[in-house]
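Today's session is about reading a structure prediction critically. Students often jump straight to the picture, but the first step is always the sequence itself: look for stretches that repeat, for charged clusters, for runs of hydrophobic residues. Only then move on to the predicted structure, which in these notes is written as discrete structure tokens rather than atom positions. Here is the chain we will use throughout the hour.
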Amino acid sequence: GVRMRMEGREEMQGAVGLRCSWDIPPPAGTQAKWVRLNVGGTVFLTTRQTLCREQKSFLCRLCQGEELQSDRDETGAYLIDRDPTYFGPILNFLRHGKLVLDKDMAEEGILEEAEFYNIGPLIRIIKDRMEEKDYTVTQVPPKHVYRVLQCQEEELTQMVSTMSDGWRFEQLVNIGSSYNYGNEDQTEFLCVVSKELYNSPNGLSSEPSHKAKV
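Below is the predicted structure for this chain, in token form.
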């Protein structure tokens, strides 16, 4: 019984050890040091700890000051010649790990900045989001267009075999004999065919096209 209890306790300790790597405090001496960044004329105030969440990022290398000699403005803020509009969401992502965007903010703009600052996890999140959006936009259900063609029995096989591309045979309605040519009874048929029209996102109808993702 004692051994069982011991094993159980060890498992518990193991579980506690599984912490997100972001929770690990940075080396002593770097903590709680405030960093000012002047991004395209807008000053952002953050901590070294936040900027170093993503070890490989430009921002982490910048505030460690190893190989990047960046100019500073008169307040001592690092000068970064990028668009400040998109820097807010990037900084917030480093703070809490979530991507939060205003509805009119272009994801392409964020992606551009995430790639510049080299923030891998954020690049992946944005690309996934853009692909999902892409996917939902292009998945417009097709419209069905129906046509009814009237023909005689002997023309039927020819008509079905020469049906143009995209048209599909739906059903055949026998409407009986309406004409008498001498003794020949010609049975008349109504032939119903349908075609799918795909609506492309810009509102124009188009044939189904399978665009390859480049």
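Discussion point for the tutorial: The radius of gyration is 33 Å.
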